[in-house]
Amino acid sequence: MRLGYPGYQGRLDSMRRLKPARYEAVMSGARTFTDADWRCSECGGNDRYTRNLACRGCAVQRPERVFKPVPGVGTIYIPTDEAASENWQQRHLRAQRLQDQAHTLSRLGSIAVGLYALAGGRVLRTGSVVLDTEPLMLAVDSLLSGDPAQARAAMTPLLQQDRDLAVCVRTVAQAVSNLKLNKH
Ligand SMILES: [Zn+2]
Predict the structure, then answer these.
(1) What residues have a C-beta under 5 A from ligand 1, the ion?
(2) Which helix (H) or strand (E) is 142 found in, with range?
(3) How far is residue 92's CA from residue 148's CA, in Å, rounded to a whole number?
(4) Where residue 61 falls among pLDDT bands split at 50, 70, 90?
(5) Among residues of the chain, what percentage have pLDDT more than 70?
(6) Residue 51 banded pLDDT, cuts 50, 70, 90
(7) What distance in angstroms lies between residue 49's CA and the mean position of ligand 1's atoms?
(8) For residue 6, how far is its CA from the centre of ligand 1 (angstroms)?
(9) Which of 5, 102, 148, 153 is the S-S candidate for 63 at Cβ 3.0 to 4.6 Å?
(10) 145, 137 in Cβ contact below 8 A?
(11) Distance 30 CA to ligand 1 centre (A)
């Protein structure tokens, strides 16, 4: 949670009254807390991120769902069928998000590890796309989430694929993090 914005103290006070477990987690600097009054309709878990109340179980499972190592083939990203059921507004938001992500990636400059290189918002291996913008940013966000379980879920399939690929994605994440730090 961002500290020190106007009205922050008021929010803290109401959080202490309405959601004491979240309040205690915020005060102790914990990234997650267990919400006894809530259960995720997707995964049935009740651990949530302190910052935005998102479900931790789902956040950890997301990379596991879409990154699938296929022995001998090397395809590691399988888009979920969520895209098919999205309505227009969701598709629009997704396109907007992709554009923002591609813009962020385009500002990172040249990154290359072994045979892997960042180009045009995607990771290429000797000219072929290995990670498109969306899975790349999913891995980057997982790495920067501060949740070791989420970071591990994203890195494991990349490491299984190729150590250099994992190092490349980690380098991209570091560069995105630096970019965000410099903005403030
Ligand atoms: Zn969930």
Answers:
(1) 40, 42-43, 45, 55, 57-58
(2) helix 133-144
(3) 31
(4) confident
(5) 84
(6) confident
(7) 11
(8) 31
(9) 153
(10) no
(11) 19
Q: 125 — phi, psi (to 5°)? A: -120, 115
Note whether 165 and 123 are within 8 A (CB).
yes
CA of 32 to the centre of ligand 1 (A): 13
Each residue of 123-134: pLDDT tens digit?
Answer: 999 888 888 888
Q: Which amino acid is at 99?
A: Q
Tens digits of residue pLDDT in 96-117: 888 899 999 999 988 999 999 9
Instruction: For the chain, give the mean pLDDT.
Output: 85
Nearest to 144 by CA among 121, 179, 170, 118: 170
d(CA 148, CA 49): 13
Which residue's entry shows tokens 């403030």? Answer: 184
